[in-house]
Write a structure and sequence with these properties.
CATH topology: Cytochrome Bc1 Complex, Chain D, domain 2
Organism: Brevundimonas staleyi
Order of helices and strands: HHEEEEHH
Number of domains: 1
Protein name: Cytochrome c family protein
Pfam families: Cytochrom_C (PF00034)
CATH superfamily: Cytochrome c-like domain
Largest sheet: 2 strands, parallel
Oligomer: single chain
Structural class: mainly alpha
Number of strands: 4
Bound molecules: heme C
Shape: globular
Strand content: 5-15%
Keywords: Heme, Iron, Metal-binding
Radius of gyration: 17 Å
CATH class: Mainly Alpha
Number of helices: 4
């Protein structure tokens, strides 16, 4: 009985954990991030909510990205990893089709903040 209760409580916690995964990036600005990702052309390869054109399909849609637990299905979707991914994806995953992007660390943090608004 007690075990069943513990298991029930544990699964409740796991649930709460998943639904509230606010990923906050200190000092980053999502609005600036949107401007950066428009400037460098992320949408040539991705559909990105908030960007009307282009809507590339090579890299897939980033709609709902904040809710995903993995980046590209294999890296933890955490701020530091995402920022590095945005600047230099091949450094994390040599075989990836996503090229290194010409953005600074600060710009990558802003872009990441924008991606974390996509629910
Ligand atoms: C030349 C095409 C290309 C460009 C430009 C590009 N990407 Fe990607 N991106 C990809 C591809 C292909 C993948 C899938 C990578 C994989 O699975 O290894 C990807 C994956 C991603 C992912 C992980 C998506 C997921 O489903 O987990 C994110 C986030 C991302 N890109 C954001 C960006 C942002 C932001 C920019 C601009 C700074 C950008 N990409 C520019 C091709 C591109």
């Amino acid at each position: 009985m007690r075990t069943a209760l513990a298991v029930a409580l544990m699964s409740l916690c796991a649930c709460a954990d998943k639904t509230s995964a606010p990923r906050v990036i200190e000092g980053a600005d999502a609005t600036r991030g949107l401007a950066v990702l428009e400037r460098v052309g992320c949408a040539a390869c991705h559909q990105i909510p908030g960007v009307a054109w282009p809507q590339g399909s090579v890299g897939g849609s980033l709609d709902g990205f904040a809710e995903r637990s993995l980046i590209a299905g294999r890296l933890p979707n955490q701020p530091d990893t995402l920022v590095q991914w945005l600047r230099d994806a091949p450094s994390l995953s040599p075989e990836t089709g996503m090229p290194p992007m010409p953005i600074t660390d600060a710009e990558a943090r802003d872009v990441a903040a924008y991606l974390y608004t996509l629910r």
